[in-house]
Amino acid sequence: MHPHQLGVNVEVLFSQLILLGLTELTYHNLNSGQYARVVRDVLLMLHYRLEVYTACDGEWTLKAKGWLGCLGDFEDVVGDSVELSELSTVMALSSTVEHGSDENRLSIAFCNLQDMRMTIAEFSDTDHFSNLEVSARKFFFNFLNSPKNSLYKPSRS
After folding, report:
1. Residue that is last in its domain, among 49, 68, 85
2. Is the full-model pTM beyond 0.70?
3. Does any domain span residue 157?
4. Domain count across the chain
5. Tens digit of pLDDT for each residue in 76-102?
6. Where is the signal peptide (predicted)?
7. Which end of the chain has fewer CB atoms within 10 angstroms, the N or the C?
8. Does one domain contain both 51 and 97?
9. Which residues lie closer than 8 Å to 99 by C-beta, 6 or more apart?
10. CB within 8 A of 104, min separation 6: which ones?
11. In the listed set 47, 64, 85, which residue is the last one of a domain according to the structure?
12. In 1-157, beta strands by DSSP E
């Protein structure tokens, strides 16, 4: 992967070459601060899946992997970061009982605090709140899989 794809400044992180078998690869030595910054940028800002490999005895070994929905091996690097708290989504819910009906009228709103995107829905539901459960699952699935493009409109029941 080229350093520009990671948003890494080439002048700060000097490239070096390694020969593994017959393959010549470019690599970077990172101190712990640089490593943490690259991991946070790749996972939290660019929303990429990240895998880190190490070369040992001419073989590649997977050292760590993770993505936005499952930080996995990067939990300790990303866990306390400011960027993670900025990815929070706030949910508000209002429930009213419709007169002459056994259904609840639900209004639900989600606000992504990072890019100030709001998603709002209103629908009827039973006392078991099954439509609410489906709506929340669909929203979070869309949010984790395509956070920049998700516009969610729940189906009417």
Report:
1. 85
2. no
3. no
4. 2
5. 888 766 555 555 677 888 988 877 877
6. 1-25
7. N
8. no
9. none
10. 95, 96, 97, 98, 124, 125, 126, 127, 129
11. 85
12. 15-20, 23-28, 50-56, 59-66, 89-97, 104-112, 117-125
